[in-house]
Design brief:
Helices cover 69% and strands 0% of the residues. The protein is mainly alpha-helical.
Length: 208
């Protein structure tokens, strides 16, 4: 029998291993929830994008709520690694590391035309319509981010670029409260200006 000619273009997506299927669903959930939020995202939409049968979903997740928890965990891990990459950069002054993180975040939002925001912040805004089990999980993620930033601010104190009397835990909490608002505004106006506006105000405040 003659060998059929290969089709042009990209080969169809294939998810062969069970672990690959679960990971693919979670990755797709991260991208979709970051852009659309939890309530507006249907399971069918995620399954269609990944290219797996509808019945596969409940093989890996007991419910949409369980799926959401898995997506939150994956995003928290992804973002923690991103923070460490910038905030632990020993070759950069501590305060400059924060600025580097902001520039990277701004570039990331621009790459997706400001359609995507922060998944944790998105879910926090939807909390009144979400399962109650998400509340503490989301707050735990924010506390983890705050701790990482507080450590960076303490490094700035060691360097002498931040006053030794500055309350690093307070300013780290302040940063993330303001940052989530800046991300929301950046998506609204489709510009990184709100991110830079907030960051400039943050550096001014901690420098007093």
């Amino acid at each position: 029998m003659p060998t059929p000619p290969r089709r042009r273009g990209r080969p169809p997506k294939r998810v062969d291993a069970p672990l690959d299927t679960r990971d693919a669903l979670i990755r797709c959930g991260m991208a979709t929830l970051t852009e659309k939020g939890f309530s507006a995202t249907g399971i069918d939409e995620v399954l269609k994008k990944v290219g797996v049968p509808k019945g596969s979903f409940y093989h890996y997740f007991d419910s949409k709520e369980a799926f959401g928890h898995a997506v939150i965990a994956a995003y928290a891990d992804y973002f923690a690694r991103k923070l460490d990459r910038w905030l632990l950069a020993a070759d950069r002054p501590a305060l400059a590391r924060i600025g580097d993180f902001v520039e990277d975040a701004a570039a990331g939002m621009a790459r997706y035309a400001f359609r995507r925001g922060c998944l944790i912040g998105n879910l926090g805004q939807e909390m009144s319509a979400l399962p109650e089990s998400y509340r503490e999980r989301l707050e735990a993620v924010f506390r983890d981010w705050q701790a990482r930033l507080a450590n960076c601010l303490r490094a700035a104190q060691t360097e002498g670029t931040l006053a030794p009397t500055a309350d690093c835990d307070h300013w780290a909490a302040f940063f993330w409260v303001g940052w989530e608002g800046a991300v929301l505004r950046a998506r609204l106006v489709r510009s990184a200006e709100p991110l830079h506006c907030f960051t400039q105000g943050f550096f001014t405040a901690i420098g007093r």
